[in-house]
Amino acid sequence: MKFRLGCALVxxxxxxxxxxxxxxxxxxxxxxxxxEGTPKGKAALKFKEVAEKKLPGKVEVQVFPSSQLFxxxxxxxxxxxxxxxxxxxxxxxxxxxTKKLQVYDLPFMFPSVAALDKFQQGSVGQELLNVMRNxxxxxxxxxxxxxxxxxxxxxxxxxxxxxxxxKFRIQPSDVLEAQFRAVGANPPKMAFSExxxxxxxxxxxxxxxxxxxxxxxxxxxxxxxxAETNHGVVDYMVVTNAKWWDGLPADVRKGLKEAMDEAxxxxxxxxxxxxxxxxQKVVASGKTKIQSLDKADIAAWKKAMEPVWKKxxxxxxxxxxxxxxxxxx
Length: 329
Ligand code: LMR
Hints:
alpha/beta; 15% strand
């Protein structure tokens, strides 16, 4: 009797153990809108690689690039509904959730990605990762792309007066809208996946983006001129659904956070190189003119866009603007 009971206990213990071992991994979906060869595309793949190595059998990370799963219009809603677990929208795309992140869109705020990074790594930048928690969005990291440039289907793109009346596609950001209105342009908001066709068919005349996006989306093939304005940044916040994140087993959350940190270091370390190589390929294609700008040209753009700062100061807060500006000094 005792022997039988012992066997039953051992068997049930073994069953429980095997059940634990063979429990299905947690499927973690990461959706984004850019190509795999871009800084964000590569960082997302790195995250998958490291997370699955750190948490063998416990997580399966599925990465969906190029708006395959959700495009700009849907990805934040999908995250809030739990249909996807990580996304990395550009900071311009959180406008509906907080005014604080508008600081990143102010024209000529950051002279370089290094200045941007310095601000983000400081206490104010780190606090901003939590600014949308009341909307169930938890920021986990900043991922870099690079500086933005202007492109149009026109021959001249040197001074603000060259873009009067021109239609520029923008991301869904009120600051970007005001920035283009300040130079007399007309800026429709549009999802990233629609931009190439809109440029090709003339629905819009121009757009603003980094070299890696201009190259990987082939915008340069349907734009006559690209001016290296460096007037803003495309940078991302990796966000997750706060309730889902808080409800993960502690070891899984820890492993995913460590994987996120490694992917961040990896991707941010590559961003400048990826953009430089994309620029080179665009130049080598000979398909578009690269308009160089001198100091006076840049000063003219800066002056024309300056009123945008005052307009958005009440929503963003002067302290935040000052802290961001200080990083570039
Ligand atoms: C854009 O919409 O132009 C960019 O934010 C796309 C991206 O994710 O880099």
